[in-house]
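Project standup — Tuesday

K.O.: blocked on the structure for the chain from last sprint. Re-posting the sequence here as requested.
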Amino acid sequence: MAQNNYSFAFAEHLIKIPSDQLVMGMYVYELDCDWSRTPFESDGFLLQKKEDRDLLTVLCKKVTIDIKRGVAPPERKAVTNDRGIEAPSKAIFGIDTAYWSKQAKKLANTPITLSPKRSRPTNAPSQKTARTSEARAAKANKPQTKTASPGKPRNLTILSNARSAAPDATRIKINRDRYRTTQSMKKGIDKALWNYRKLQRTFQLVCWQIRRRGVLNVQLLQNPIASTIAHILQNPQIYIWLLNTEDKAKTKTTYCVRAAIWAAILARQFGFSRPNIEVLFMGTLLCDVGLNLLPTQLVNKRGPFKRPDYQNYQKHVGLGLKLLAQSPELDERITQIVRFHHERQDGRGFPRGSSGKQIPPMARFANLAYCFERLLRSNYPQRKVSPIKAINRLYTKRALNFSEQMILEFIHALGTYPVGTLVELSTRELALVVEQNPKARLYPKVALLYADNGARIDEPVLIDLALQGGAGAGRSISANAKLVPEDLDLSDFTLRFWGKQLGVGPFSLRL
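H.V.: unblocked you, prediction finished:
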């Protein structure tokens, strides 16, 4: 019999074994070779054919199996818990009789001691009845205030319990001083906007080629991506302003471009090198390319998915990986981003249910970017939220869907009140955040759009809230605007506050 040289991989239910020890009925979770070079499904598969087992023996030295979805190794060593009792090992078929026989012998040799029975008067109430009566009396005389029990934390909530139970994520080294702002909004906004629209059109063409021919042409994306990243490194606030003031998506694939930009802005905040930001941008942009191979009716479906539809929707990850396999020159990290971008920190994502440190860092960046984008640009108008509310919702999901480190750095990159956000001032006026104040993040530069009586201001007034001696005196941001006026189109202000334009497109200047 071959020696069982398996080891635990990631979690207790994932075990790495030599490929020559595979048996029928095992669920193959991961390979030690490139999935794209094999004919198997990248999301994992159930081993049912002898030919597949023989092929895995040739291609791989070790494979990772999931014993929750398939059978376990025949002689898996039992795991001992903190009480010294072995957890049952899973047999290939039926019940593990060896385990239960061993436990029965252990119980038979354990002496049993009984505590003496306590006597009480015949007419005395039972302890349970007495405790119930005392509790009712105490509740009737107790004031209506909640106090914490001794020894228990006061703010113990369901979310805090869930966060403490969620697996830890790998912390990423931060270098916030790696990039400096080298371009002003006024100087760079026209070139950035022109390049943003060019990238949208190019990616729409790439997706059209996938739907028509089943071919992914990544070469078309390289130059627009490089130009976009250059502008983000020079001044990320330019793209934050462009995305927040964009009213309607130009194409159906615009959300992918926007998510890639959010991910690149966060990577700049962490201090990623430019080559790494390019890999992250390309991977985030291509996360949902597999949707182009799914039926249009499924992709455009409104409302919650039924179970069969949801299972079919999840296949877009595997389809996207097959498209990436057409370009073997792509960085392997791009494939990892596409494979893991729907996974969650607490292990409740898909397709693999990976959690914590199992999820590559760049895939976590992409996941955060897409979730933030979905909050801003939901298909349902009633579910759309402002950037401030979107950040708050992401923060409540820290350690569950995303690591807390990433959320805090994202807030730092966007600012407490991101540019392009509509806010309500302490004077009940509505204003648009135009520019950040690095030294006073709570007092940005704003443009007054509506007076305190709700009347629209024809010519918006620019005010620096940090200047207490001028127009900003007595004004501060009190809250995010609860209701956006129906007659307000933020795209009207995209180029309004940056001077008079001379020229066209990327060759224009502003005075």
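K.O.: great, moving the ticket to review. The two ends are 82 Å apart (CA to CA). Residues 188 and 238 are 7 Å apart (CA to CA).
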